[in-house]
Amino acid sequence: MTVIVRDLRPHDRQDAEGFTRVRHLVLPFMLHTPESVAYDVLHAHPDAHYRPLVAEADGEIIGTAQVGLAHDSPEPGQGYVNVYVHPERTGRGAGALLVATAERRLAALGATKLFAWVLDSPGNRAFAGRRGYRPSRSAHFLRLDLANGVLPPLQEPPARVELRRGSDFADDPRPLFLLDAEAMADEPSDVAQEFTDYEAWLLETWKHPLFNAELTSVAVVDGRPAAFSAARTDGSTRYGTVMTGSARAHRGRGLAKLAKNDSLHRARAAGLTEAFTGNDGGNGPMLAINEWFGYEICATEVRHVRELT
Fold first, then answer.
1. Domain 3-111 top-level CATH class
2. Quick check: 293 pLDDT over 80?
């Protein structure tokens, strides 16, 4: 059986479905749809050079790779390659071929340091190690049973605080962009980000097909957004929070927890049955908040780094 690696064709429905199928089998705790996969390619920032790859055998997509540059980092030359292979199609060389193809492409773009998320299992970590990647920080995927779990009761906002929906900012979402940028800047990460491009944020976040403005909750203090919990849904029964955070001036007041609790309750009322989120392994405060909600860790990934010479 010959395995080939090629670019994903975003306008090809079968390609998008095959990419989504592999990602769902390997990462069932992340939300993807064929529409979101195609959208990510077609609306990526041009400086990111985002061109996902697929490994194909006998017409079947058996592996995927997200490949691009960290264009919004102040440190140049940083790229990423995240490879996932169909669990029943391993051992055929698809992963190795995807990595090699991605490395050549990123090196040609001037990348000197590559980052890769690797599911925390002996086989996956050994695969990365054989290719010169060394482990760095870890991150957890968490799941909450919305249908049967017990959420903390809804709380009354404190004085001067109002809970609003993301959709309330449809006419002018810039205040949410500024809040998101401030919260993102303080997220633990190997790669520093300068989140300053409002038009890119509109395309990649606000207009993303998975983003759900109705279920996104915002805590507003004296008329200004102070904390939020951004929601995504996949059109079925799955819900995810992709960012929960507060403005620096309002941290320590429990406003992010207030917003997330509001979003979770409304998600359950809307008929969603599973909630997912992710946490950096070193983000103790957010892990504690999610444990308070009833989330449980369902998988762990380890960030790996390789210096290109």
1. alpha beta
2. yes
Q: How many Cβ atoms sit within 10 Å of the Cβ of residue 285? A: 12
Query: DSSP secondary structure string, 176-232?
Result: HHHHHHHHHHTS--SS------HHHHIIIIIT-TTB-TTT-EEEEETTEEEEEEEEE
CATH topology of domain 144-299: Aminopeptidase (3.40.630)
Q: What is the 8-class DSSP label of residue 2?
A: -
Structure tokens at 306: 């390789």
What is the DSSP annotation of 259-286?
HHHHHHHHHHHTT--EEEEEEETT-HHH
Dihedral angle at the C-alpha atoms of 72, 76, 77, 83, nearest 10 degrees? -20
Domains 3-111 and 144-299 share a fold: yes
What is the reported pTM?
A: 0.93
C-alpha 64/C-alpha 61 separation (Å) is 8
- Contact between residue 140 and residue 297 where contact means Cβ atoms under 8 Å apart: yes
Closest to 105 (Cα-Cα) out of 131, 138, 67, 74 = 67
- Write b or e for each residue in 186-211: b if 16 or more Cβ atoms lie within 10 A of its Cβ, otherwise e: eeebeeeeebebeebbeebbbebbbb
Confidence class for position 154, pLDDT limits 50, 70, 90: very high
**Which parts of 45-167 fold into alpha helices (H)?**
94-108, 122-130
Which sequence spans correspond to the domains of the chain? 3-111, 144-299
Query: What gap in Å lies between CA 121 and CA 202, rounded to an integer?
Result: 36
Residue with tokens 């993303």: 208
pLDDT tens-place string over residues 113-150: 999 999 999 999 999 999 999 999 999 999 999 999 99
